[in-house]
Structures are given as C-alpha cells and as structure tokens.
Design a protein that fits this description.
336 residues; mainly alpha; CHAD domain; CHAD_dom; CHAD_dom_sf; CHAD domain-containing protein
Length: 336
C-alpha cells in the first residue's frame, strides 16, 4: 500500500492555525451550552464542530493517523448530540414567529399545542446535551488537540504560501465544487426533496472548505462565498418546509390518538385542527415561493459565471508551477 507522504511545514502550520481557530470556537461555547440561556450557544458550537471536522481531514497527514481519527470521532459525536436540540430550537423559534403573525384567532390553539409538544420534547433531550458536554470535557479532546498543534504554531506568521498548500487548496475546493455542481441535474423538479437536501449539504461542505483556504486568494473569495452561502440558506429553508410538511400530518394523527385516549372522544381536535392545517398550508406555500426564488437565483449565478470563476481563482496560483504534481486531498463520493 502506498504510504501517504507528510505535508510540508508551511501547509501544516497553515492547517494548525485553522484547526486551532475552530478548536477555540468550540471551547468558547461549552459553558453557554450548559447554562442554556440562549439557543445561539448550541448553534455556534454545532457550526464550530462542523468546521473543525471539515479541517481535520485536509491536514491529517500532519498528525498521526490515530490522532486525526480520534479527533474526528469525538467532534462528530458532539455535533450529533447537539443536532436534535438545535433543530427543535429552530422549529420553536419559527413557530413563535408564525403564532405572533397569525391574525385568525381560531388558528392559535392548534399552533400553541404544537409549540407545547415541541417544547416538551426539547426539555426531554436537554440532559443528553449536558451529558455530551460532560463527556467532551472529560475526554480532554480540546486540550489534547491544542497540545498536538502547539509545535506547528511557533512558526513565524506571514510566510508566503507554499506550492503544496496551493495544490491542496485547489484540489480540495475543486473536488467539493464538482460534487456540488453534480447535484444541479436534480434541482429543476420541485419533487426532488432528497436531492435538494443533498445539494444543501454539499453547498455547506463547499463553503466550509473554501472558507479554510480563502485567505490564500485575492479578495478572499468573498463574492463566491456569498453565493454559496445563499444556496445553503435557500435550500436550508426549503428543507425546513419539507420537514414541517412531512411532520404535521403525523402530528395531527398523534394528537387525535392522544385526545381519544384522554377524553374518550376526538372533539378537542375541532379546536386544534384549524391552526395545524393553516400552519401546514403556510409551509407548503412558503416552500413553493422559496423554490421559485432559488431557481431565479441559480440562473443568476450561472449567468454571472460564479462557478467557472471560482475554478479559475483556485487554479491561478498553480499556473506558475505547471510541471509540479498535485498534492493528494481526501477523496469524496459524488452527489447522489
């Protein structure tokens, strides 16, 4: 089996700075997540762990194989532990906005019942979030990462990027861009719920990868990152509507069974159902509007040559070294 060669000092120092930045971002949110007085703590920590996980594989050759695998495994566990809590926080927040905006009094009981159930579920999983923070602290993952990175962080800053660093950046960004654009074939049918969701995931991965290397390029790829962020956010909002659309009919059925079990009849649903049906229709209408907006935006990005321009930006530094071989970056599967 071919042994993976170690990265050069410049690349490892660059990677160590990136990983250290995200390590600090994770550490900064632990107390806030435990105290739970603001839902943004969980959001920021979840994003920080994802960015940490995006960076580690790119620079794993700078560390031992076991170290990189351990860092990924434990940071992934934190991301997953926060996932359901964050999703519920977002649902409750959006539902609060909908309740505040609704003008028909008859719609409020059903929407408030939905909020009650979501709040109950959120409270039921809070101990799981606290336990995840306890495990993170006891594992000493973050101090161990800091100790491993320390030798790479003593290198004087301001040194010019090396060719291997440019090669790694170009290959990693291009791979992510290829996978992202492979999803385009499925976006023109609004029924492709899974495919649109997958494209959102690939946009997020492309964004995180580009953010890692953006400082290597003129203008730090700000316009390209803005477009990718818009793709991620629009498709994320569409996915949120799809989740509601799937969940609400099931919720109505569950509440009907609860009413029958508790009261012996389902007349209470006459009060609750109008608001729940209204909220379902609102999500379906919002989804349709968001989807049309996404198609318009996508056409605009195509006309502006955003994606070819990104390829040109990341490949430009390599033109100075036309005979050099590319650095190996971790391979990913195409969009499916």
């Amino acid at each position: 089996m071919k042994k993976k060669k170690k990265m050069d000092e410049c690349t490892c120092s660059f990677g160590a700075e990136i990983i250290e930045k995200h390590r600090q971002a994770v550490a900064a949110e632990i107390d806030g997540v435990i105290q739970s007085d603001d839902i943004e703590y969980i959001h920021r920590m979840r994003v920080a762990t994802r960015r940490l996980r995006s960076a580690i594989p790119l620079f794993q050759s700078c560390f031992s194989k076991n170290q990189a695998a351990d860092w990924l495994k434990q940071s992934r566990a934190v991301t997953r532990a926060l996932g359901e809590a964050r999703d519920l926080d977002v649902q409750i927040e959006k539902l609060d906005q909908a309740i505040a905006a609704v003008k028909t009094v008859q719609f409020r009981p059903g929407m408030r019942r939905l909020r009650l159930r979501l709040t109950q579920k959120r409270l039921s999983i809070h101990n799981h979030v606290i336990e995840a923070m306890r495990q993170l602290q006891e594992s000493r993952l973050l101090p161990r990462i800091e100790t491993t990175l320390a030798p790479y962080l003593v290198t004087p800053t301001g040194q010019p990027p090396s060719l291997p660093l440019y090669q790694l950046a170009a290959q990693a960004i291009t791979q992510r861009l290829d996978i992202f654009l492979a999803c385009e074939a499925s976006i023109f049918d609004p029924k492709n719920i899974h495919e649109l969701h997958q494209m959102r995931i690939e946009a997020k991965r492309l964004r995180y990868t580009l953010e890692i290397f953006a400082t290597l390029y003129p203008g730090e790829c700000k316009s390209e990152l803005k477009a990718i962020k818009s793709v991620q956010e629009l498709l994320g909002d569409i996915h949120d509507c799809d989740v509601w659309t799937e969940f609400l009919p099931e919720f109505i059925t569950q509440e009907t069974y609860r009413a029958l079990e508790y009261h012996g009849h389902t007349r209470a649903m006459n009060i609750l159902r109008p608001g729940l049906q209204h909220f379902l229709q609102f999500q379906q209408q919002t989804r349709a509007e968001l989807y049309q907006r996404f198609l318009v935006e996508w056409q605009s990005w195509q006309q502006e040559n955003v994606w070819p321009q990104l390829r040109q930006i990341v490949s430009a530094p390599l033109d100075v070294y036309p005979n050099e071989s590319a650095t190996d970056a971790p391979r990913e599967q195409p969009c499916e």
